[in-house]
Amino acid sequence: MSASCHAAAARAPVAAFAGRRAAAANRASGGKVARAIAAPAAPSPRRAVIVAASASAAGKGAPADADVARAPRPEYVPSRIDDPNYVRVFDTTLRDGEQSPGATLTSSEKLDIARNLAKLGVDIIEAGFPIASPDDLEAVRNIAKIVGNERFEDGYVPVICGLSRANKKDIDASWEGVRHAIRPRIHTFIATSKIHMESKLRKTPDEVVQIAVDAVKYARSLGCDDVEFSPEDAGRSDPKFLHRILTAVVDAGATTLNIPDTVGVCLPEEFGTLIAGIKENVPGEYVISTHCQNDLGLSTANSLAGVANGARQVECTINGIGERAGNASLEEVAMAIWLRGQDKTAIYGAFTGINPVYIYPCSKMVKDFSGMSVQPHKAIVGANAFAHESGIHQDGMLKNKKTYEIIAPETIGYFRGEDSVGVVMGKHSGRHALSSKLKQLGYPLEGDALDEMFNRFKLVAEQKTGGVDDDEIIALVTCEGSQFAGDVDKSASWKLEDVQVVCGTMGLPTATVKMCGPDGMSRVRSEVGSGPVDATYKAIDGIVAAGKVELVEYSVNAVVEGIESLAETRVRVRPMDSVAMKAKSSGEMEARTFTASGADTDIVVASARAYVAATNRMIGFMREKAAAAAKEAEAEKKEAEEAKEAVAK
Ligand SMILES: CC(=O)SCCNC(=O)CCNC(=O)[C@H](O)C(C)(C)COP(=O)(O)OP(=O)(O)OC[C@H]1O[C@@H](n2cnc3c(N)ncnc32)[C@H](O)[C@@H]1OP(=O)(O)O
Ligand SMILES: CC(C)C(=O)C(=O)O
Ligand SMILES: [Mg+2]
């Protein structure tokens, strides 16, 4: 790309994306067109200037707050792009994407997706393969009539395209579908690799060239001035033959030459060389396009290699759905260009008309409608793309989000909330993250209390595969062992060290409990009971030896849904001892009860924790009572002695 082109791209005024987003957040979609489609609180997609990251300004991978303005989308002319840095985005979710096994979409779902694709700002929507069925034709026609006629305030309206084999009836069907759009495009294709020509088409190369030329001419003869031609399996075709057929179709009136790596076999360098060779060897005015399948997981890399070598249209699908291993994913290609197009890389200066804030809503819609789930670690739109579970990463994120995020999630329309840094609490989390999460939940812990909570949290997190939920953290912090559990003198408390139960249909339920006393000594005891919890409680009573204790109440609940949920138990105990009596308002005396809760992934352990906590509270109360009584007796004794002395004097 030339330096002057880049300068042109950078001419537009600088604007802070975050500020624009905030200002625009309360506006409706803002274009001439009224929109009914759910979209995030985000700017109008039809901004005259598209903003993108300036990685060069703030170092490689600078996130959204380093945004600079981009040049506007150039006026649409089928065979050329007046800004040499502009890359058209051709979305084929509704055609190649729908070819994914099991991903059939209804006409109304296709229309909804097409509407969101227009908000996203794709240049071309391939709405279907009209000859495939009357439904497909109807869906394409519907999209052409509606989305293809909704012009936005900056003049943008997506091109609506239909795919056709290189024959009249397919092309007629495509034209019948797309002709209602302001900007209709016919896409026709025929295979050019040796294996496809010989085995599938059973045609000679000369025949294939003739069929292609006839098809393009026929499409143009219908009045369509926007015709895309694809040499199917170009990635495995002889480049010389490709140059020959492409030159012939450009002469016949093709305006876009789409180069498919149909079986996803090319390596980026090879694909880039293929594109560069076409640019060099095929004369005429046309736009080169990439269409990369993902069989080797190289579709994004190959598409970018295409752009680096002169392609100015990229064919992609939302979430990368498509035939077999899918197509180049729109969000990956578009965001790579958005983030790195300003860097002095091979794609220096490249930009698209995509408004990234609609990426996430589009991804979600396509996922929901197609039933094709998005893998959690999928780039840009996966559930984990902006989540951080490792302690070191969480610490970095809490200090500066740019340490581990190259794109702010809001940029793609994924709003995590004001102060959220995507921290997911789990077994790899560290103290910084736990401390921050606890503060956020209203339980600020520091020093030893934080350390103690951290150890408990780690023990629980290790048992779970799905991370530890906020409610589970609250259960942990408000149950036994935390300062939020109540006023227990920890130095004088019993600590539960280990619990082991044997239960089931054979033999008596038996529990072995190990506890550490206030004197720092560990004791072990085994008991049988009516069930594992009863046996455990008997063993605890036996170790603590605080007299006879009655279990007044016992309940157990799952903190969150699912089999892995933390269990929270709540117990109320009553000592069978007169020291712990309290006066009711009636003046009657009643035995005082002590309540506590415990949480763990294991129900028996959670039950034991709650019981130990309640017992500690009871012992603490009785100790205080005894101390107060001793103090009172001491005072009485002193008073009596003083009185005696006074009498003696
Ligand atoms: C790489 C791609 O993604 S290409 C697009 C693939 N997508 C689809 O195929 C989905 C929609 N397809 C369909 O609904 C059907 O295949 C239809 C309606 C298009 C055609 O159905 P049918 O007429 O029953 O043909 P069928 O699919 O069995 O076979 C394809 C025929 O088209 C021929 N053909 C394949 N590609 C082309 C082409 N680009 N141009 C002309 N003819 C072609 C084949 O050689 C075969 O011809 P034959 O019947 O003379 O052997
Ligand atoms: C029809 C063409 C463009 C295609 O989908 C492919 O070759 O993968
Ligand atoms: Mg394809």
TrEMBL record:
<dbReference type="GO" id="GO:0010177">
    <property type="term" value="F:methylthioalkylmalate synthase activity"/>
</dbReference>
<dbReference type="InterPro" id="IPR005671">
    <property type="entry name" value="LeuA_bact_synth"/>
</dbReference>
<keyword id="KW-0100">Branched-chain amino acid biosynthesis</keyword>
<keyword id="KW-0808">Transferase</keyword>
<dbReference type="InterPro" id="IPR050073">
    <property type="entry name" value="2-IPM_HCS-like"/>
</dbReference>
<dbReference type="InterPro" id="IPR054691">
    <property type="entry name" value="LeuA/HCS_post-cat"/>
</dbReference>
<feature type="region of interest" description="Disordered">
    <location>
        <begin position="630"/>
        <end position="649"/>
    </location>
</feature>
<dbReference type="InterPro" id="IPR002034">
    <property type="entry name" value="AIPM/Hcit_synth_CS"/>
</dbReference>
<keyword id="KW-0432">Leucine biosynthesis</keyword>
<protein>
    <recommendedName>
        <fullName>2-isopropylmalate synthase</fullName>
        <ecNumber>2.3.3.13</ecNumber>
    </recommendedName>
</protein>
<dbReference type="GO" id="GO:0009098">
    <property type="term" value="P:L-leucine biosynthetic process"/>
</dbReference>
<comment type="pathway">
    <text>Amino-acid biosynthesis; L-leucine biosynthesis; L-leucine from 3-methyl-2-oxobutanoate: step 1/4.</text>
</comment>
<dbReference type="Pfam" id="PF08502">
    <property type="entry name" value="LeuA_dimer"/>
</dbReference>
<dbReference type="InterPro" id="IPR000891">
    <property type="entry name" value="PYR_CT"/>
</dbReference>
<comment type="similarity">
    <text>Belongs to the alpha-IPM synthase/homocitrate synthase family. LeuA type 1 subfamily.</text>
</comment>
<dbReference type="InterPro" id="IPR036230">
    <property type="entry name" value="LeuA_allosteric_dom_sf"/>
</dbReference>
<dbReference type="Pfam" id="PF22617">
    <property type="entry name" value="HCS_D2"/>
</dbReference>
<dbReference type="Pfam" id="PF00682">
    <property type="entry name" value="HMGL-like"/>
</dbReference>
<dbReference type="InterPro" id="IPR013709">
    <property type="entry name" value="2-isopropylmalate_synth_dimer"/>
</dbReference>
<keyword id="KW-0479">Metal-binding</keyword>
<dbReference type="GO" id="GO:0003852">
    <property type="term" value="F:2-isopropylmalate synthase activity"/>
</dbReference>
<feature type="domain" description="Pyruvate carboxyltransferase">
    <location>
        <begin position="87"/>
        <end position="360"/>
    </location>
</feature>
<keyword id="KW-0028">Amino-acid biosynthesis</keyword>
<dbReference type="InterPro" id="IPR013785">
    <property type="entry name" value="Aldolase_TIM"/>
</dbReference>
<dbReference type="GO" id="GO:0046872">
    <property type="term" value="F:metal ion binding"/>
</dbReference>
